[in-house]
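User: what does the whole thing look like in 3D?
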Amino acid sequence: MALLEVTDLQVSFGTASGRIFALNGVSFSLERGEVLALLGESGSGKSVTASAIMDLVPNPPGAIDRGSIRFDGAELLQLPPNERRDLCGSRIALIFQDALAALNPVYPVGWQIAEMYRIHGRNPEGGVDKAVIDLLTAIGIPDPERRARQYPHEFSGGMRQRIMIAMAVALEPDVIIADEPTTALDVTIQAQVVDLLATIRKRSDAGMIFITHDLGVVAELADRVAVMYAGRIVETANVFELFEDARHPYSVGLLASQPRLDTDEDELVPIPGSAPNPVALPSGCAFRTRCPRAEGLCAEVIPPLETVGPGREAACHFPVSPA
Amino acid sequence: MNQPLLKVENLSRHFGSGATPVRAVDDVSFEIARGETLGLVGESGCGKTSLVRTLLKLGPATSGSAVLDGVEITKASGRELHELRRKMQVVFQDPYQSLNPRMRVDRLICEPWALHPGAVPKARWREETVRLLESVGLRAEHADRYPSEFSGGQRQRLGIARALTLNPTLLVCDEPVSALDVSVQAQVVNLLARLRRERNLAMLFVAHDLAVVRHVSDRVMVMYLGKIIETGPKQSIFSAPAHPYTQALMSAVPTPDPRLRGRRKRIVLEGDLPSPANPPSGCRFRTRCWKATSICAEQVPTLMARTPTPGLLTACHHAESEVISSQTPWNGSSS
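Assistant: Here's the predicted 3D structure for the full assembly of 658 residues, as structure tokens:
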């Protein structure tokens, strides 16, 4: 049994211009010790997926219309609110993208990390203060005793992100969801944070969902990748297969459109057009208006996510042939 | 070689006065030739944007000079500055903020012509607007729409069209693709490359994405804490960087190739950028540098040729080229 299993999840939001379907039947599973990357561009539904798992979809205007999220055998969508809340933070933890917005500006960071223990009624060995200092040491904050008493604005962006990570791993969760944790950071700082996450995954057997649009970070960290487009998963594959032999035309386009640091390209190969308006998605396959392989069928039938090889799936009527 | 289009000498831009002004740009010199693209890279707070703003005269220089086509930018005012603005135009980072939401596209495009009478006679505005829109990959009917009706990539095309209205010789692009989705970035990068060829545009291309900079630039300049620490032709700087910071910066960029995971040499820098109000003595990078010795605290390293790499200038006492081979992971021992 998978550690976390999301099945046919649909999430929608009411807006002035009609109901927007942010997720249109998303299914995936996460195993213990595995890093699954959710790769996609803005509006593809990556962050909404994280919000749905963490019970953070604002209602109204948002609503989980159907689907199931099973964690360690329990159906999260049917748990009573207090039990659900207990799980979040302790057994499923979220690392937010914007650490400055996620941290409370008027409390010292040590106090905020300690809050994890207080709220969940935990008494770590050696006391909460020691646990906080140990965490700050583990994430590489120098002079942790003094730093624990400082406020978020006294830290750099990279350190704040590491403090977010410390809070997320404090209670040794089974699932860590990292929502674009490196996007707002400079490359040298991003490298520090990616290294820290890699260390954490080595030390624990937690499953990690890593949400990003950065193919480079995916290549560094992920075991398996789910590519999202317009509220659906369009391809899943292990990370090596995806980069060498992608099957969905969107994945192929995404890989081809990126310049690389270690080679010279004559001209980049962009994906034409732009992401569709979620209020008026194209009929059939949402990618068809930008797809070089689209045919009549694509406008009529939504392609289901189907097995295209051992452990891999693609949602395309005309997938790219194996390399 | 002919006169450079832009010649910057000892340019500084400090903020605040008193004992510790923030030295955002400190004694910077470089040139851009006609038709050349110079990439400017560095992390947040290194002074990229302050340098750009000073060059565009959106803020005063503290000292030094910048000459565009024979005209001193830092001292220009009135009519002279007005003329200068025709020659240098800018593409901003955020196409959601840089276009007035209340102006229709045709007015947005024509506004520079209204401000610079004589550039294009009014009778030809419509025709020229359509021509410009088409040259950036938009269509004639887009002229009658408002910015909110466009996607991010299309808005950035509008921003580029607007920057080209007065036929500038220098186009300053300040992070032109970093607000765009990956699949759309490549469209805009290709557009800039084509326009540059067609119009023999010189570009100052500012970005933090090194792969994009490598793709578009002829030469590249790396800034750290207000100083240029290394500069040279693209091939030299990307294949054999000699400054430890440049090496660290390049090694930190994740390569989109999972086969190279753990096989690449990674230099992970310790700590964060020091405050530009109180930079370290001598070399500003020394507090994070694994090669630093006592000389680095005492003497500011000058930007000069320190390695045999053609055209590469490095500001480091311990400059040593690090050859980054083209990676061939299947050959076994390559990393």
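In plain terms: The interface with chain A takes residues 43-44, 151-154, 181-187, 189-190, 193, 208, 210-212, 214-215, 238, 248-261, 266, 268-269, 272-273, 324, 326-327 of chain B (CB under 8 Å). Chain B has a mean pLDDT of 90.
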